[in-house]
Amino acid sequence: MPRFTTYDGTPIAYHVRGDGEALICLPGGPMASSAYLGDLGGLTAHRRLVLPDPRGAGASGVPVDPASYRCDRQVADVEALRVHLGLDRLDLLAHSAAGNLALLYAARHPDRVGSLSLVAPGVRAVGIEVTEDDWRAAVALRAGEPWYAQGRAAFERLWAGDATWAEVLDVIRPFAYGRWDAAARRHEALTRAVAGAYYADGAFDPAATRAALAGLDVPVLVIAGEYDGGPTPTRAAELAALFPGAELVVQPGACHSPWIDAPEAFVRTVAAFLDPDVGTLVADGVRLADRVPPDQVPSASAATERAQR
């Protein structure tokens, strides 16, 4: 397993899967081993996935200073990985809490970012609030599930302040998946993590980060799951709106790990986004979800007529 030494002497391990151009995949948790990302539903058929284990997780070393777990301080680990790999720019894919890390990296090193793929991303870094109402709406979408009643009761205890996340986690785990089946259960067992100092005071300066991202002129994809409560598709749309030309995709029937819920749909979306020969259809300034080869992009009037049908 390859390793490199980051800025403070901590050894960082990373895993490589697939062939082709590198796609750096940052795991969430926060501070979870990258093992739970697997091959991202088969994305290895299109890109070479480079999956680092965060400091203190997986096969990476434990830092001397626990304060270095803070999200903004791990930006230097991502930059050290770029230098180690000898890449001029990084195509970054980040899941869940690592969305914050990717956003901070892009704000600090805009000239080192080739593209951003943000999957069910954390949004604290830009000051977007995931509210109790967001979670209530997302939970209500699962009312037809056999585990709903027990899970809803656990959420009510959480919202009332009568329980902690740790106390109800086992009961509410099914809400993180579009289907609570054997594949979801196996995957969930790999996602256990401890936040530690990741969200410690001082990690984020939302105003500065938003200002920096407003000028980030690179392709950005935000993927939200239909059933996700953090972020909901609405909050994901707020994030996408911070960039000059981001695309938002809401994956139907999916939740917080969309490559588990519907791998083919997930891979199709990400692979098309990363393919330089596939363009985005824009009609009257509105960026649409359709992606077509550049020589097949219709005129603005034809695209508008198509969008209205």
Task: Please outline the helices and strands.
Layout: E1 3-5, E2 11-17, E3 22-26, E4 48-52, H1 75-85, E5 90-95, H2 98-108, E6 113-119, H3 132-140, H4 148-159, H5 165-172, H6 182-188, H7 206-213, E7 220-225, H8 233-240, E8 247-251, H9 258-261, H10 263-274, E9 279-283, E10 286-292, H11 300-308
Parallel strand pairs: 3-4, 3-5, 5-6, 6-7, 7-8
Antiparallel strand pairs: 1-2, 2-4, 9-10
Helix pairs in contact: 1-2, 2-7, 4-5
Q: How is this structure best described in words?
A:
There is one protein chain. This protein is of the alpha/beta class. The chain folds into two domains: 3-131 and 178-276, Alpha/Beta hydrolase fold, catalytic domain (Rossmann fold), CATH 3.40.50; 279-309, no CATH class. Helices cover 32% and strands 18% of the residues. It has helices at residues 75-85, 98-108, 132-140, 148-159, 165-172, 182-188, 206-213, 233-240, 258-261, 263-274, 300-308, and strands at 3-5, 11-17, 22-26, 48-52, 90-95, 113-119, 220-225, 247-251, 279-283, 286-292. It has an eight-stranded mixed sheet, sandwiched between helices. It has a two-stranded antiparallel ribbon with strand order 9-10. α4 packs antiparallel against α5 (165-172). The N and C termini lie far apart (52 Å). Residues 297-309 have low confidence and may be disordered.
